[in-house]
Automatic annotation (TrEMBL):
Keywords annotated in UniProt: ATP-binding, Nucleotide-binding
SMART domains: AAA (SM00382)
Organism placement in taxonomy: Bacteria, Pseudomonadati, Chlorobiota, Chlorobiia, Chlorobiales
Pfam families: ABC_tran (PF00005)
Protein name, entry field: ABC transporter ATP-binding protein
InterPro entries: AAA+_ATPase (IPR003593), ABC_transporter-like_ATP-bd (IPR003439), P-loop_NTPase (IPR027417)
Listed PANTHER family: ABC TRANSPORTER ATP-BINDING PROTEIN YTRB, SKFA PEPTIDE EXPORT ATP-BINDING PROTEIN SKFE
The organism of origin for this protein: Prosthecochloris aestuarii
Example GO molecular function: ATP hydrolysis activity
Ranges where the ABC transporter domain occurs: 5-231
Domain of life of the organism encoding this protein: Bacteria
Length: 295
């Protein structure tokens, strides 16, 4: 399947500090992909490069076949972007905003906008200054949906939205994608709610891609093993097949994409005792934290 968005060997630095190193991934059409990572992992830098606000020092990102730092107006019109600091005309009401923005977008779909507004029970005639932060966020999301973009980039879409609104929006987004075959790249700090939302996952850690696969494949293949803590296990560090290590008072937890046989063989080969060895079930959030670390 042809990729709609792709990055190849991208690197970028702020001064001497590298925010991204050798980042490569592709996104296929018609899916919701989560670009995830802890604060400072490089997510916002990737978004800024994709939208042409930054030109990478090395490598290249392409959207619809064009370099992201040189997108033509026609290609930009095919992209709906939500980014922190999105400018809103607070003196307008949702109804007035819809009338204002509609002429700028040939594919404008007012029904999508008002459907989301009505589901969230936002008064159509109240000025944005009279709405809550979460309600204003829903209005902005509705404006992006109404554009009927082929690609939506939602940077921290959940900011300022409470749990009920977040769940409603994800349900609405799923329905929207089924109807319009839109491709979505989103970031969020609330990982647990993305379990039912995303199809694919790209996880960044310290500026590098550590996972790029379907979300079900990630949950099924990433594993946690626990065994009795020992002097040897205290020396474990992330090195293939070990992806990360946690130490509790009495136990060591080891995270890996490898199966039990491979991990046991690795421990035995390094003379590390692993008494009371067992496998620990993981959900999506557990797996994300296990790979990226708690701190």
């Amino acid at each position: 399947m042809q990729s709609l968005l792709e990055c190849h060997n991208v690197a970028h630095a702020y001064g001497r500090n590298y925010a991204l190193e050798d980042v490569s991934f592709t996104i296929a059409p018609g899916k919701i992909t989560g670009l995830l990572g802890k604060n400072g992992a490089g997510k916002s830098t990737v978004i800024n490069i994709l939208m042409g606000f930054l030109k990478p020092m090395k490598g290249e990102c392409r959207i619809f076949g064009e370099p992201s730092h040189a997108l033509t107006p026609g290609t930009r019109a095919r992209i709906g972007l939500l980014q922190e600091g999105f400018i809103q005309y607070d003196f307008m009401s949702p109804r007035e905003l819809e009338r204002y923005f509609a002429p700028f977008y040939p594919q404008w779909n007012r029904d999508s906008f008002f459907e989301l507004i009505r589901r969230t029970r936002i008064p159509e005639t109240k000025k944005l200054t009279q709405l809550s932060c979460g309600q204003r966020s829903q209005v902005v999301l509705g404006l992006i949906l109404a554009q009927q973009p082929e690609l939506m980039i939602l940077d921290d879409y959940s900011m300022g939205i409470d749990a009920g609104y977040r769940r409603l929006f994800i349900d609405f987004l799923r329905e929207y994608i089924a109807d319009y075959k839109t491709t979505v790249l989103l970031t969020s700090h609330i990982v647990q709610e993305l379990d039912k939302a995303i199809d694919d996952v790209i996880i960044l850690k310290e500026g590098r891609v550590v996972t790029n696969m379907s979300k079900p494949a990630f949950v099924q293949s990433f594993r946690c093993y626990q065994f009795k803590r020992s002097t040897g296990s205290e020396q474990l560090t992330p090195y293939s097949p070990v992806r990360s290590v946690e130490q509790t008072k009495h136990a060591t937890r080891l995270y890996s994409f490898s199966d039990e046989t491979t991990v046991k063989a690795y421990l035995a080969g390094h003379d590390i005792e692993h008494e009371e060895f067992s496998s620990v079930p993981l959900n999506f959030e557990d797996a994300f934290i296990g790979l990226t670390g708690k701190y």
